[in-house]
TrEMBL record:
InterPro entries: T4SS_TrbC. Residues 1-18 form the signal peptide. This is Type-F conjugative transfer system pilin assembly protein TrbC. Keywords: Signal. It comes from the Bacteria.
Length: 181
């Protein structure tokens, strides 16, 4: 709070030199800000099922159905290369054919190479639930991961006993799947 107040005083003091504000004006503004600080930013919690097209087809199809029903995106690190035309753009009809069965199953498909890098994901599948605080402080995101070729329901069950934002998110997503394992 002191750093915010100091920043406010500093910016108000800079403005005072550029205009006819007095130090009393600056102190009054700082006092009003201290009494009514800006509201805290809301925390956003997102879930992703990190997968790869190298996984067994049956596992991908099962996860596609679960992800569709729970509204959890299937996140890929990239798209397969186009062996027929190596000079083709990365996103082209041939490279996207591999995603067709998942899209047809209704699964939300997203490309998120940064998640694999940021959290050091080397093996898939992994359920990742990530917390991000929209903050000027630049705090690093927190996350929990459940690795293994298991159902989405089972992965969510592993987190549902937690008494934090991750458990809350897991319980909300689990409710969308119903009694399905």
């Amino acid at each position: 709070m002191r750093s915010i107040l100091f920043t406010l005083l500093l910016s108000a003091a800079s403005a005072a030199f550029a205009s006819n504000l007095t130090i009393d004006d600056v102190l009054q503004s700082a006092s009003q800000f201290a009494q009514n600080p800006a509201p805290a930013k809301e925390t956003q919690v997102s879930a992703y099922m990190l997968v790869s097209l190298s996984m067994p087809k049956a596992s991908l199809e099962r996860l596609a159905r679960d992800c569709r029903d729970a509204g959890v995106p299937m996140a890929f690190a990239g798209v397969p290369s186009d062996d027929e035309n190596p000079k083709a753009p990365l996103l082209n009809p041939n490279s996207l054919k591999a995603f067709a069965p998942l899209i047809e199953a209704g699964a939300p498909i997203e490309l998120h190479p940064e998640l694999f890098t940021e959290f050091g994901i080397k093996e898939v599948p992994v359920l990742l639930i990530k917390e991000e605080t929209d903050s000027a402080c630049g705090t690093a995101p927190r996350a929990v991961a459940v690795p293994g070729d298991v159902t989405l329901g089972y992965a969510l069950d592993q987190l549902s006993d937690r008494q934090d934002v991750f458990g809350e998110k897991a319980r909300a997503l689990r409710a969308k799947l119903g009694d399905r394992n």
